[in-house]
Design brief:
Length: about 325
């Protein structure tokens, strides 16, 4: 009897060790690929505001793509690249604390907006359309406010922007336990990779802020877009400083001088965005003269099922040829 138990323990131990080795090999393979992916294709340029990482695609009307939380130039380019086929020169940059753009002592939305202008200066671009998504919206908005002569059009997609307390939330805030777990996730490549493999739907719900059932019935193209967006957050450790800053800043949003925005403006959100951007998007659009608001009933934080329409509307606003 004891020999059988010993053999069973040995077999169990061998299986456990083999599984651990396999997981370790899979993780090393995937994280090596992720690091190589973000290290290729971008340029680190010296600007008056310090080094800024960026990537370009297409030619024509310049558009600065300002990524959201968990991003970098790669997320911005993945979002905006379809526009490069429509007469638009897409310039996707990494914000402060993301990938190779360092985190300075002052990283407010205003400071980031000034850095966006520094990037345009370094590229010798007089003015450009600016598109800010999620946590990239505050600096895009500040750029239109602080540097109106440099912004030809403004797009705010699922914007993490201020709304008065009198305006009802369109989604409840994350429970503290979920937020704490999320903060642990963003500091560890292995932990994020593990959850990606064993609890992907939870990441769809919490990180992409999109109902998993919506993604389950999405078209193959939209499903692939969401999958790539989630998987390409790796290496999350190279984005951790920016993510931590965005998370903290999102709790202390302040009113912007929305009445001073002069650029033609398009604001987009979905009612079922689990980050609750619908209410703030609606408010922001109501306070900017002439702004157009597109609100989808469903689509989540990444507007599943509407990407073609969103790209078309952005191209029309920017004035692509």
């Amino acid at each position: 009897m004891r020999s059988r138990l010993a053999r069973a323990s040995l077999i169990t131990g061998a299986i456990t060790a083999s599984a651990a080795l396999w997981m370790g090999w899979q993780f090393e393979r995937d994280i090596t690929h992720a690091r190589a992916r973000v290290a290729s294709g971008s340029v680190l340029i010296a600007t008056r505001c310090g080094p800024i990482e960026y990537q370009e695609a297409g030619s024509g009307v310049p558009l600065l793509a300002v990524h959201g939380s968990g991003g970098g130039y790669d997320q911005g380019m993945a979002f905006a690249k379809p526009l490069a086929q429509q007469g638009i020169r897409v310039i996707a940059m990494s914000r402060f604390g993301y990938l190779r753009t360092p985190m300075p002592p002052e990283a407010s939305a205003a400071a980031q907006a000034d850095a966006h202008v520094c990037l345009l200066d370094a590229l010798r671009i007089d003015n450009a359309a600016v598109m800010g998504g999620s946590a990239g919206a505050p600096s895009a908005l500040q750029m239109a406010i602080r540097h109106p002569d440099r912004v030809t059009a403004l797009v705010l997609a699922v914007p993490l922007t201020y709304k008065p307390p009198t305006h009802a939330d369109s989604a409840p805030p994350l429970p503290p336990a979920v937020e704490n777990a999320l903060m642990r996730l963003i500091g560890s490549d292995f932990l994020f990779w593990s959850v990606l493999h064993v609890a992907r739907n939870q990441l769809v719900k919490v990180v992409l802020a999109t109902p998993p059932e919506l993604l389950a019935r999405a078209s193959p193209g939209e499903h692939a877009r969401a999958t790539a967006m989630l998987e390409n957050i790796l290496p999350v450790s190279a984005r951790a400083k920016g993510l931590a800053y965005d998370t903290a800043a999102g709790k202390h949003l302040v009113p912007d001088s929305l009445a001073s925005v002069r650029a033609p403006t398009l604001i987009i959100s979905a009612r079922d965005d689990r980050y609750g951007t619908y209410a703030s998007a609606e408010y922001t659009a109501s306070a900017i003269a002439g702004a157009r608001f597109i609100g989808f009933e469903e689509g989540g934080h990444i507007w599943i099922g509407h990407n073609d329409d969103v790209m078309l509307e952005i191209a029309k606003l920017v004035g692509a040829r």
